[in-house]
């Protein structure tokens, strides 16, 4: 069998492969990116299954519409109106099989082989994978502490056939960094001059445990703004529910065609259940609990780093989300550290898969949401011993 | 915004667009392809939700493996061993977001722009859509009453860069036709001479209400056999669960990479629930009830056609599944009939979207699974009045 060029180019998930090694019982793993399972509202979701079936019967089990369950889209639109002041309506919202599928659909409808995609460097691995299927040219733009490097962004925008910019403005994966208000405004101004879409992927935005929420970069301002959201980090990832918000109707129509061809529609059972959950529970209170949990875990990791890490290892201090990003300023390759760390039974993700143009990097991603403060301290201590 | 060539080429679902017109209350619609909702085992699935959560807790709600829930894959493998005598194991089974996604993933990993795909003419619209995203060259091979035309198949196989053949061997969509035992053997012999994959998409195979089950064309025989199955027609389509069975490990590995990039993994909540349902209920008895239901509906449609249709309209007599295919031997275009039929408040799908190389055809697809025998009779009577 001869396989397609696109699949031969697409990296299999480095992280998923790493997880196979790091999943051993006695390893302390900061490698995953999983929400803490104690944050799942299991009892409430179970009640919502019952209630949704009682009210809607066979409609939970039948084929359904490609754009998604209307009341769920209305709920999402109302929330973005209320919380973010955006002029969005149910027809601007499109439900996807997790926001991973949103990335894949956007690539499909916008990218011809060789077209340009501007991506944060380092950037979200899942996005790199999804976009690679369309065989694009990646233009990496350095992610600084307050957002994209503006000069590099302008230069990248002047490259031929650039279709979109992909950003994670809040508590970015992998770095935990958040774009500043000033950078957001500057980026919006720059992007407005070009015929490109601006994707803001915001799965973590609600999980802010420090500082003030900031307005989006382009949503509500740029004609070709695409906002992505997800229920994976605040309700449940297992049900694979994400969404796209955009006012560009032509784009949404193409996305609908691509979605029909990809999986017809998103699991409608889960759409009914999540909608019922959102309509019947105090979601804000629920999210507050997750925030308190993650703040505690993030504090534990930062405190341990402060105590144990040598001075040549720098790290980010996230205001929310799930990740801390560390840099070995002495240039030690993260892959070397990884191998030694596995001997010490502690794991993380070496930075390499998050770059489209660099290898053997001296950075690493550490997740703090899936271990207790005590275990986090012990893991960081072990890791520090080999840095 | 400039959109990709692939999406501009991909037809949006003709059927889904038609459904918007035909969904009016007073229209008798044979246009859909929906299972009868009374066939969904709602109470048993509801009990399985409860039981699966009680037993497995947060695992239903967390991220999960890309290839799918192991016990579900084991169940499927054991069933194909038992029922079809195939030497398949859990590792040969890969869970997808409905079998629509299986089609899309296979296209992704095998097709470069311009590569050949051999497809039944007429063929399944969802497959045409999914494959079109990879910009292939379609080689249509006439589907005769007993399967593909063998001369056309050989000729198509000799075209450059043909990657696979797509078939629906049992109660095909759209025609309701089933490949004969002889044709299956002849096709297997022919295909064995070429380095191509043979896809057998079999969502309806269990819904046989007449005749004897037949062995697959290539499964268990051809090295590059790909068998597709689904729970959409026998349990519930709303949960979007399909699967791929193949012994080709390299192919499965590429499919895993494509799936990671597409939606990470299939809804794990639904995988636990469907597995629990299968393990806790008499599935065979359940399917028998659907078969009795559909046989009754199929009989009603065939009887009414016999009574009301003019002699120049021929139609297939399916041994199972969900569809009858009618041909206006006087050459009347189905699209003309469709417009007149809508005036009579009866709907069907004109044959056009099922062909990759013909338009304005004189064929139409009629679904009988979603109306009572009385309504079917009335609908066919109305339709006959304009034929």
UniProtKB/TrEMBL annotation, chains A, B:
Ranges where the Aminotransferase class I/classII large domain occurs: 46-383
Domain of life: Bacteria
Biological process (GO), any one: alpha-amino acid metabolic process
Keywords: Aminotransferase, Pyridoxal phosphate, Transferase
Coiled coil: none
SUPFAM superfamilies: PLP-dependent transferases (SSF53383)
EC number: 2.6.1.-, 2.6.1.39
EC main group: transferase
Cofactor(s) the protein needs: pyridoxal 5'-phosphate
Family statement: Belongs to the class-I pyridoxal-phosphate-dependent aminotransferase family.
UniProt subunit comment: Homodimer.
Family annotation (PANTHER family): AMINOTRANSFERASE, KYNURENINE_ALPHA-AMINOADIPATE AMINOTRANSFERASE, MITOCHONDRIAL
Protein name according to UniProt: Aminotransferase family protein
Lineage: Bacteria, Bacillati, Bacillota, Bacilli, Bacillales
């Amino acid at each position: 069998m001869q396989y397609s060029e696109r699949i031969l180019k697409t990296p299999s998930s480095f992280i998923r492969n790493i997880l196979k090694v790091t999943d051993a019982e006695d390893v302390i793993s900061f490698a995953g990116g999983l929400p803490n399972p104690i944050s799942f509202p299991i009892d409430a979701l179970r009640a919502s299954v019952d209630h949704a079936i009682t009210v809607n019967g066979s409609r939970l089990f039948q084929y359904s519409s490609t754009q998604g369950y209307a009341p769920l889209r209305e709920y999402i639109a109302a929330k973005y109106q209320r919380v973010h002041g955006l002029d969005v309506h149910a027809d601007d919202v499109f439900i996807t099989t997790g926001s991973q599928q949103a990335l894949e659909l956007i690539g499909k409808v916008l990218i011809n082989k060789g077209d340009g995609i501007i991506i944060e460097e380092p950037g979200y691995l899942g996005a790199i994978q999804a976009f690679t299927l369309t065989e694009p040219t990646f233009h990496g733009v350095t992610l600084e502490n307050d957002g994209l490097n503006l000069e590099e962004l302008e230069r990248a925008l002047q490259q031929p056939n650039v279709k979109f910019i992909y950003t994670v403005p809040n508590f970015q994966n992998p770095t935990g960094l958040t774009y500043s208000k000033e950078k957001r405004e500057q980026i919006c101004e720059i992007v407005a001059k070009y015929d490109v879409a601006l994707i803001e992927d915001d799965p973590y935005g609600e999980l802010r445990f420090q500082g003030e929420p900031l307005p989006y970069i382009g949503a509500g301002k740029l004609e070709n703004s695409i906002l992505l959201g997800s229920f994976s980090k605040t309700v449940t990832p297992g049900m694979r529910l994400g969404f796209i918000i955009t006012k560009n109707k032509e784009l949404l129509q193409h996305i609908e065609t691509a979605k029909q061809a990809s999986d017809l529609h998103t699991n409608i059972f889960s759409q009914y259940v999540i909608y019922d959950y959102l309509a019947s529970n105090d979601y804000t209170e629920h999210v507050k609990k997750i925030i308190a949990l993650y703040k505690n875990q993030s504090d534990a990791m930062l405190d341990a780093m402060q105590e144990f890490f040598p001075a040549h290892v720098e790290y980010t201090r996230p205001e929310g989300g799930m990740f801390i990003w560390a840099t070995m300023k002495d240039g030690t390759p993260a892959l070397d550290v990884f191998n030694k760390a596995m001997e010490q039974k502690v794991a993380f993700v070496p930075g390499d898969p998050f770059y489209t143009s660099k290898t053997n990097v001296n950075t690493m991603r550490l997740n703090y949401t899936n271990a207790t403060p005590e275990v986090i301290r012990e893991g960081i201590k072990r890791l520090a011993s080999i840095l």
